[in-house]
Design goal:
single chain; alpha+beta; Ribosomal Protein S5, domain 2; 3 domains; 6-stranded mixed β-sheet; 4-stranded antiparallel β-sheet; globular
């Protein structure tokens, strides 16, 4: 029988309980987090097999709303479990995803699935915060390589005073609600709604939230110290994800380091020493640069696997160099300073028969928005896990985005 371990702490006036080992023992990591009477179960699983054909990190994050969590039975007028997740469930899952995704080794090709299930809601303590904490603990105690932990926290402001994890009633009174996930000294994900608030106030709220989240980070580290599994070797997993061939991964990496020596001075000359106005022009220059090096390799009868490896990793290298130039030298490849935005233009009233239309351009990003106002009979009934049935009174709108 699996050993059950329970850890508890006080956080902002509510008891926080994490329990490991009771549910889903076959997962790489799992735990429940109870915050007040709000409770979430998180499970994380990594496949043993790799898909060599994927060119991205295969992470999937889901949040499952359970109406029994609020003591409700889903009405007969709504789709049952065969239907798709609700809009709120999708957005909450994305909130978890954006916080944890950057902390994985992006070269992994093992599929990873994170599933959070809401078991109970007390309508005072946020299930989003409980879900983020449960996910962070499950990943941190698992054997899956992950550079965590993170904590989830919400900061509001009422009458000039910052508050942590405001209740739904307090959120309605608050000047802003900043929900974010963070490490001990860095914000990784932000979801916010706000009235017009000075920039300095928002910045102080971030610093306030980071400081108040530190006990949660230490709490999660304490849990890993007692029940955490040894992490799998990252290099071994990455190598298993590479296509089988005659050239070892180490040799391919050495060849790519030689390629960087070729690329870096040319990046300085062709990309950073002159403003490149359009994305198409930048891609053309980068493509020509890559092709020059490939031609050199072919003239030396370089193995095809090395050539393909360099082609595959060139874009990642280029993006890293562009980011480094911004952070280290305040230099952008399109010539803008860090405090400059792209040219903005907008037009209204383009479409004659709709109630509203607008065309917005920022640089090469174009958005066409169209709005139609419906009658009260067009109101849609909306039911969610933690709210009573209500009418959705938002306008029917459509937009087209072209980058």
């Amino acid at each position: 029988m699996n050993q059950i371990n329970q850890f508890s702490t006080e956080f902002e006036g509510s008891k926080l309980i994490a329990e490991v080992g009771k549910f889903v023992p076959h997962a790489n990591g799992s735990c429940t987090v109870q915050y007040g009477d709000t409770m979430a179960l998180a499970t994380v699983i990594m496949s043993e097999d790799v898909d060599e054909d994927v060119d991205y990190f295969p992470l999937r994050v889901e949040l499952h709303e359970k109406y029994y969590a609020a003591g409700k039975i889903k009405g007969s007028r709504y789709n049952k479990r065969e239907g798709k997740p609700s809009e709120t469930a999708i957005l909450d899952a994305r909130m978890i995803d954006r916080g944890i995704r950057p902390l994985f080794p992006q070269e992994l090709k093992n599929s990873i699935q994170v599933v959070t299930t809401i078991l109970s809601i007390d309508r005072q303590n946020s299930h989003k915060i409980a879900s983020m904490l449960a996910t962070s603990i499950a990943l941190h105690i698992s054997d899956i390589p992950w550079n965590g932990p993170i904590a989830g926290i919400c900061v509001g402001q009422i009458d000039g005073q910052f508050i942590v994890n405001p209740t739904p009633h307090q959120q309605k009174l608050s000047d802003f609600n900043l929900t974010f996930s963070c490490s001990e000294n860095r914000i990784l994900m932000l979801d916010a709604d706000a009235r017009e608030v000075p920039y300095e106030t928002i910045l102080k709220a971030f610093k306030f939230g980071l400081e108040r989240a530190k006990p949660l980070i230490h709490f999660i580290e304490q849990i890993r110290g007692q029940v955490g599994k040894a992490k799998q070797n990252v290099d071994t997993l990455i190598e298993l994800g590479q296509p089988e061939g005659e050239i070892p991964l180490k040799q391919r990496n050495e060849a790519f380091e030689d390629a960087k020596i070729f690329f870096k001075p040319r990046l300085e000359h062709f990309l950073f020493n002159q403003p490149i106005g359009t994305k198409r022009e930048r891609k053309r220059i980068a493509s020509e640069m890559l092709q020059q090096f490939i031609d050199v390799l072919k003239s030396k009868a370089t193995h095809q696997e090395i050539i393909e490896y360099i082609e595959k990793n060139f874009v990642k290298f280029l993006e890293a160099e562009v980011s480094r130039a911004i952070l280290k030298r305040n230099q952008r490849i399109d010539g803008r300073r860090l405090d400059q935005i792209r040219p903005l233009t907008c037009e209204v009233g383009l479409i004659p028969r709709t109630h509203g239309s607008g065309f917005f351009k920022r640089g090469e990003t174009h958005i066409l928005s169209i709005a139609t106002l419906g009658s009260p009979e067009d109101e849609m009934s909306v039911e969610s896990m933690d709210e009573e049935e209500k009418k959705d009174q938002s306008d029917h709108a459509g937009s087209g985005i072209q980058d």
